[in-house]
Amino acid sequence: MSDDLRTLYQEVILDHYKRPRNFGALDEGERADGYNPLCGDRVQVYVKQRDGKVEAVSFEGSGCAISTASASLMTEAVEGLTCAQARELGDLFHASLVGSDPAAGDRLGKLEVLRGVREYPVRIKCATLAWHAFRAALDGHHEPVSTEGASAPSDSDNAKGKNP
C-alpha cells in the first residue's frame, strides 16, 4: 500500500471517529449491546428491518478510533441492503481482516479503509465489535455479545460491582 493511500485511509478513519455517522438510538427496531474486554470498547447497535431489508441502523457507545470508525462505516454500508446481503457483507468484512479471503477487500467498498487493521491482530476485535452487535440485533438476540465469545457484562452487573 502506498504512503498516500495509507494516509488517506487514516484520514477517513479519523473523520468517522471524530464525526461518526448514524450515531444515536433509534426509536423502533432491535438493539444489541457489544463489549470488547481487551480494549474496553462498548457499543449499542440499533436495527430497524422492514420487508427483509435493513431500513435503518445506528449506534451509540464509546471506544477507540478503530471501533467507532468501524461502527460508523458499517451503518453506512448496510443500510438499504437486504438482511442476507448485510450478513454476507459482515462475513466478507471479517474474512478480509483475518486473511481467510485475500480477494475480499476488492468487494468491500468504503470498508476497505479498515483492512490495514490486519497488520495489528489485537485491533481486529475493535474493528469487528459493531459487526457482532449488528448481527445480534438483526437476529433479535438480546444478550450482550463480546469479542471474547462469552456474554458481555450487563450494565446492571456493573452497577452491582460484579465486573471491574
Describe this structure in words.
The chain is an alpha+beta fold. The protein has helices at about 5-20, 65-80, 85-100, 125-140, 155-160, and strands at about 30-35, 40-50, 55-60, 145.
Structure in a nutshell:
With 164 residues, the chain is an alpha+beta fold. Helices cover 40% and strands 18% of the residues.
| Cα distance spanning the termini | 40 Å
Poorly predicted runs: 150-164
Number of helices: 5
Order of neighbouring strands in the sheet with most strands: 3-2-1-4
What is the N-to-C succession of helices and strands? HEEEHHHEH
Average pLDDT reading: 87
Oligomer: single chain
Most strands sheet: 4 strands, mixed
Question: Helical amount among residues, as a percent range?
Answer: 40-55%
What structural class results from the helix and strand content?
alpha+beta
Shape: globular
For the secondary structure, the number of strands is: 4
Task: Report the C-alpha radius of gyration, rounded.
Answer: 15 Å
Report the sheet-strand fraction.
15-25%
